[in-house]
Amino acid sequence: MDRRIGRTRKLMQEALMSLITEKGYEAITVQDILDRADVGRSTFYAHYRDKDELLFSGFEHLRGLFEQQQRSLGAAQQGEHGADFNMILELFRHTGQNHKLYKAIAGKQSGEMILKYLHRYLYDMMIVPHKALVKSKKTAVPIEVATHWIVSSLLSLMIWWLENNMPFPPERMDEMFRQLTMPGMEAALGRKVQKRDIDKAAIVKKDSGAKAFYSMFVDQEGRPEGS
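-> structure tokens emitted (227 positions)
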């Protein structure tokens, strides 16, 4: 990609992220983005159909960078502490640290779009390590169905946590999520599953990055991109 094109897209993506924290996604107009990014209308439509396409382009643009960072973190932790990297806990921690931004994103229309995207993203990330846990092709429940259920349960619990102003710390949410879902996974697989089995599989998977999805909205110091 031409560097000028890359810079222009980055300006518009950062403008959108900063506007989301100020006024919420639903209230943002294309003109707001143009004013914040200081670009022309023709420039915007040369790259994006609407603000929704801009939103998801930001996901794709930044996801690779943060997944690379996450894989490096996972590899380091795996080398030092075995499978101590806890994917679900990291997801709750990162969401809690940036809850204002995520609440601002979760409007009626935008929230539905983002949840569908996040569901697909997490499913694609989890299906490989889940399949690695299957010792036989015959399971009580197809692993694809079990993974869909796990991801849906995680997102539902995450939404409840945010909407109720995070009444429990991330560590407790991780614990409760595992207590609720582990029996179902064991029933689906037909055998006992250790916590470390799933976490270790998540580390070594090439595209590991539950936290990466959320990391794309913030910089290294926890501020929204572009603020």
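The chain has one domain: 52-215.
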